[in-house]
Specification:
Length: about 325
């Protein structure tokens, strides 16, 4: 027994358990336990904000699942009234639209400009820039339901239909994954249809420079030509400052291009100012090819970006925009 432990054994005021703890700490070399705890506290102070910014995006996922839960409850209450009929689901859509519109107003001070360009009836194809998380599009859909009384059909990526539990939400809000014939059918039936040609690739690998990543995609333009409908460009200011991705890391880009698996981490959830802008409709012109129409649409969205978004985007500046009405000028 060392001399260091003799006082522990000899001290009448120390219990046997206290002695064992003291011996164990001495064995671990933690004589300065308080210093270690202070260091741990420092690490928590440094890393907690980093942890939070990766957790906040999951709150949107939780909100989506709460919406799904609401739909299940709503269906249960109305199962004797043909719960799957459109007229029955109108009430559910309006209720969820009100909740999402409230979230938009509180968290992002959401505003929309040019909603009058959306027709009160009849078809139109809305083409939008895709943020890391398309919450701005959810807010837009809510506004269209509440202010226009219309449901905007949407084209979603295939992986959305593989997420457990998402089926009721996708069906009630008329989300389809294509193919082109289904898109044309929706428009010919007089519906609004929205699509982001950049899709998941643009969501994960574009950045604060707001690069449009459509590649050579012209399918959406061919849909508009076949259905003989106008295209309305759409862009949301600061959407990249609300949520960002780590798509700049090559390993994530390689995984996506190789396996088409969207495993890129997303962080953010910052309460920055969101403003959605709708451009002038690009009217149907039978003389335009799909490539020409796609290029004209891309130019329309790029014009909205150039007019309303400061490049590169800045999170702190976007937060400050919550407190004033200044917008980028021409």
């Amino acid at each position: 027994m060392t001399a260091e432990n003799e006082p522990c054994i000899a001290g009448p005021s120390l219990t046997y358990l206290t002695c064992l703890v003291q011996i164990f700490l001495d064995w671990l070399g933690l004589e300065n336990l308080e210093d270690y705890l202070n260091y741990l506290d420092y690490l928590m102070w440094v890393f907690t904000p980093l942890i939070i910014v990766f957790i906040l995006p999951f709150l949107i996922v939780i909100f989506l699942y709460l919406s799904i839960l609401f739909l299940h409850v709503y269906k249960r209450k109305n199962e004797l009234k043909e719960a799957y009929s459109n007229s029955i689901w109108d009430g559910a859509r309006k209720t969820l639209a009100t909740l999402w519109d409230g979230h938009a107003a509180i968290w992002h001070g959401y505003e929309i400009y040019g909603l009058e360009k959306i027709p009160d009836s009849g078809p139109a194809l809305i083409v939008y820039y895709h943020g890391a998380l398309p919450v701005d599009y959810y807010y837009f859909v809510a506004k269209v339901i509440l202010l226009k009384g219309r449901t905007c059909h949407s084209v979603g990526d295939h992986f959305l239909f593989k997420i457990p539990g998402f089926k009721p939400l996708l069906e009630v809000f008329s989300v389809i994954h294509g193919p082109k014939e289904e898109c044309v059918k929706a428009l010919r039936n007089g519906h609004l249809l929205a699509i982001s040609p950049g899709g998941v690739r643009e969501a994960l690998f574009s950045d604060e420079t707001y690069t449009i990543m459509w590649g050579n995609r012209t399918g959406f333009a061919q849909v508009a030509i076949d259905a003989k409908v106008p295209i309305i460009p759409m862009f949301t200011q600061n959407v990249r400052e609300g949520f960002r991705s780590l798509g700049c890391l090559r390993i994530f880009r390689w995984i996506y291009e190789k396996f088409k698996v969207p495993l890129v981490p997303i962080y953010g959830g910052f309460p920055v100012k969101f403003r959605t802008y709708l451009g002038d409709p690009i009217q149907y012109d039978p003389s335009l090819t799909a490539s020409e129409l796609a290029e004209r649409t891309k130019h329309g969205i790029q014009t909205l970006i150039d007019k309303h978004q400061k490049i590169p985007g800045n999170i702190f500046r976007a937060l400050l925009e919550r407190f004033h009405s200044r917008k980028k000028e021409d």
